[in-house]
From TrEMBL:
This is Collagen alpha-1(XXV) chain. One of its GO terms (cellular component) is collagen trimer. Keywords: Collagen, Membrane, Transmembrane, Transmembrane helix. The chain crosses the membrane at residues 32-53. Residues 1-25 are annotated as: Disordered. Residues 1-18 have a biased composition (Basic and acidic residues). It comes from the Eukaryota.
């Protein structure tokens, strides 16, 4: 309380209380953006760490594949068995070889 509020001036006391209340609002209005920016900064750092880990995993997989130590993933075609696919490839290879032979004899 100020000296005017002690002397019994009610208007001064109300002004002092309203200034204190608005100061609290200013404090809260400054705190929310600070907290929000802090949270967003932490999320960005966490995302960067996640990307770094993922990139490292991909680099390790590529290195393993390049050196021949990596696991190869084979995806099966849903409509064909492996034997059917092998026979289709063999037929196509035979056709292409026949075309090359015919072209080399005629050319």
């Amino acid at each position: 309380m100020t000296a005017a509020a002690k002397k019994g001036d009610p208007r001064r006391a109300e002004d002092t209380e309203s200034k204190a209340a608005s100061g609290g609002q200013r404090c809260c209005s400054r705190t929310f953006p600070n907290v929000l920016s802090c949270i967003l900064s932490l999320l960005c750092v966490a995302y960067c760490i996640l990307l770094s880990v993922r990139t490292s995993e991909f680099q390790d997989r590529v290195f393993a594949l390049e050196t021949g130590k990596g696991e190869l993933y084979y995806y099966r075609a849903p409509a064909f068995s492996v034997d059917q696919l092998n026979s289709m490839v063999q037929e196509r290879v035979d056709e292409l070889l026949a075309q090359v032979r015919n072209h080399s004899f005629h050319g």
